[in-house]
Amino acid sequence: MNPTELAMHPASVALYGGSFDPVHRAHLQVARSALANLDLQQVIFIPAAQSPLKTTATVASDADRVSMLRLATADEARFFVDTCELQRGGTSYTIDTVMNFRAQWPNCQLHWIIGADQFECLHRWHRIEDIVSMLHFIVLQRPGHSIAESKVPGLKYTEVQAPLMTHSSSEIRFLLKQGRATEDLLPPAVEAFISSHGLYTQ
């Protein structure tokens, strides 16, 4: 989806990148917390083709990850899914995505949602100095991680209190492979999609 299809002139938007393999309830709770705590019009979920800081490939196909995201966000009026990183292919660098949205919406206040675990690694992000000049970070709690002083000059961020993610996508995939219950962790439509398509069973 092209950013111009989301809104003509949004004033404030949060971009939420990740593998979403699969998207789960905590992802949605994080986005809702961002909307509740900041003056945002939209949260845009952006599935990555390949994260530069992850060595493993996604398990579900790009098409299935997008389908699950669309199902998970279907009833949320201010949630959108954008596939720009999948369309670009290759390694998904945040700078390329931010520049894409900045070009479409030059006057929009852009935010990027990350967890405290990612916050600790921001100094390793490709062209992080350029990224921080174009947006404001929304930083969320993660078990075992604290939001300490950043090593990135000029970084602007807001810490948001959100429900802690007790299960990661990788842990949910493990539960699904073991045939264990995940109804408390996944949106019903996503769980039904996973079941009907036989995902994460191998």
Automatic annotation (TrEMBL):
<keyword id="KW-0520">NAD</keyword>
<dbReference type="InterPro" id="IPR005248">
    <property type="entry name" value="NadD/NMNAT"/>
</dbReference>
<dbReference type="GO" id="GO:0016779">
    <property type="term" value="F:nucleotidyltransferase activity"/>
</dbReference>
<protein>
    <recommendedName>
        <fullName>Probable nicotinate-nucleotide adenylyltransferase</fullName>
        <ecNumber>2.7.7.18</ecNumber>
    </recommendedName>
</protein>
<comment type="similarity">
    <text>Belongs to the NadD family.</text>
</comment>
<dbReference type="Pfam" id="PF01467">
    <property type="entry name" value="CTP_transf_like"/>
</dbReference>
<dbReference type="InterPro" id="IPR004821">
    <property type="entry name" value="Cyt_trans-like"/>
</dbReference>
<comment type="pathway">
    <text>Cofactor biosynthesis; NAD(+) biosynthesis; deamido-NAD(+) from nicotinate D-ribonucleotide: step 1/1.</text>
</comment>
<keyword id="KW-0548">Nucleotidyltransferase</keyword>
<keyword id="KW-0067">ATP-binding</keyword>
<dbReference type="InterPro" id="IPR014729">
    <property type="entry name" value="Rossmann-like_a/b/a_fold"/>
</dbReference>
<keyword id="KW-0547">Nucleotide-binding</keyword>
<feature type="domain" description="Cytidyltransferase-like">
    <location>
        <begin position="15"/>
        <end position="173"/>
    </location>
</feature>
<keyword id="KW-0662">Pyridine nucleotide biosynthesis</keyword>
<comment type="function">
    <text>Catalyzes the reversible adenylation of nicotinate mononucleotide (NaMN) to nicotinic acid adenine dinucleotide (NaAD).</text>
</comment>
<keyword id="KW-0808">Transferase</keyword>
